[in-house]
Write a structure and sequence with these properties.
alpha+beta, 8% strand, Glutaredoxin, 9 helices, 4 strands, Glutathione S-transferase Yfyf (Class Pi), Chain A, domain 2
């Protein structure tokens, strides 16, 4: 498989974690977002969405969007499982995934922050306040929910798609200097996950384009 990625993309980070948890080999192909390579003719010919990540699962067959890739990996390589067997628990894991991938990440990704600065003349302080507002709304809810679901990970002691999505979002929050003191459960889960080999191999600093 060919994996089109940018080392600091949290969406790509999610997929890297899942690939390593499942022990799946892949060819890493960097796409430099700072140089707008994702909008180049060469990349747009591969992925018309012009985004990372994208996973070419076989010649001419490509999946875009991180959650779609994660679901495909779970369906085609079900062991180790990243979703619980119980339908209600599966829904709860997906609920946390959606909290991150639908409610906070889209509002705080690089294209939105750039638009705030370039088109709306937002100051650095404005952008930081914007970023922190949506992170706090998401993380406050997640941290409370972990009271009843967490073990070492978000749901029990084994990683699920919830951890796969939470760890990169926390990495971004730390990078943007969001105060994390109020999210004790999240910090505990992330600390454990980052001690696992799959998460360490997927970390931004471990990528060839870092």
């Amino acid at each position: 498989m060919k994996f089109y990625s940018y080392y600091r993309s949290s969406a790509a980070y999610r997929v890297r974690i899942a690939l390593h948890l499942k022990g799946l080999p892949y060819e890493y192909i960097p796409v430099n977002l700072l140089e707008s390579q994702q909008k180049s003719d060469a990349y747009m010919a591969i992925n018309p969405q012009g985004l990372v990540p994208a996973l070419e699962v076989q010649p001419g067959e490509l999946i875009a969007q991180s959650v779609a890739i994660l679901e495909w990996l779970e369906e085609t390589c079900p062991s180790p499982a990243l979703l619980p067997v119980d339908p209600l628990q599966r829904a709860n894991v997906r609920s946390l995934v959606n909290n991150i991938t639908c409610d906070v990440h889209p509002l705080n990704n690089s294209s939105v922050l750039k638009y705030l600065k370039d088109k709306l003349a937002a100051t650095d302080e404005d952008v930081h306040r914007w970023y922190t507002t949506w992170v706090d709304r998401s993380f406050s809810a997640i941290d409370r929910s972990l009271d009843t679901t967490m073990g070492d990970c978000c749901f029990g002691d084994q990683p699920t798609l919830a951890d796969v999505c939470l760890v990169p979002q926390v990495y971004n929050a730390n990078r943007f200097k969001v105060p994390m003191e109020s999210y004790g459960n999240i910090q505990q889960v992330v600390q454990h996950c980052n001690s696992l080999e799959a998460f360490a191999l997927a970390a931004p600093e471990a990528q060839p384009d870092a």
